[in-house]
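Pasting two entries for a bug report.
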Amino acid sequence: MYYRFGKTFHFLSILFFVVVFMYIYSSVPETVAYQIDEEGLIVKGFSRSTFFYAGIVIFALLNIILAVPAKMIEKQSTANLKRLFPIGDEFRDYMLTWIYSFIGIINVSLCILALFVHSINNQNEISSSSYSGFFYLVPVFFVTWIVALFWILFQKFKTLQRGA
């Protein structure tokens, strides 16, 4: 039941990424910088189309690769998954919620990364220091979700040991 909240968050994060990425793509110059010097001149960069296609490919690959295990658990695709996460098991719900919300966290992190590239390329409109709080959120989210994963797995293994 809870995994539906994870799926909703995942879906909303996809919409958020698409909107943010399209806005950023429309506002970056033809040469997108990802490193500048003290005077604001481009040290390292790539073309606008490379930025767009690389961003979309990375986004799609991460979403597909990370959603496959969740779909396998949902569809009970293997005998081991049926035994480990049977339908109705609370840990199946926790694991699906974790996977979908983790994909959402990845998508939000990609949005923050795209905002950083946007701030580098539009120094006259917005400075990269105005996003510094968001940059610290990314590792906090990852650490929190990894700790939650270990908690879920630890609890699941405890129930498996009691049942065996």
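Entry 2 (this is the one that rendered wrong in the viewer):
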Amino acid sequence: MKGTIIDVTIDNVVGEVMNMKNDGQRFVTLSTYQEGEGKLGILYHFDKEYEDTHLRMTVDMKKPIPSVSGVFFGAMLVENEIRDQWDVKFDGMVLDFNRTLFLDPEVTQVPLVSNVKIEPKK
């Protein structure tokens, strides 16, 4: 991955995303990857004048992740997608689809996490 990588934590990620916005950075998207048992790696991707900056953090999948959708509204779509695909929750999303953005009602298991069931949708 090219560009600058800045390590963040769940305690400072929202503030760092706000710093990116105040610096004129454009929010591009989020990426996720499994970072060991019960851990999820998250990359927040930004662009300014064709230069990429990435915020990187590792989270415990059992703890809520602070949403950055209050800073960049478009992050809400990716956060909902990550919630659909992984067994994680984002705290403070501006719009929470409650695992219905991309998953059909008949899906009963979290796609990217083995043995995690989803409650049936009504």
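Dev reply: Rendering is fixed now. As a check, the viewer should reflect this: The chain has two helices and six strands.
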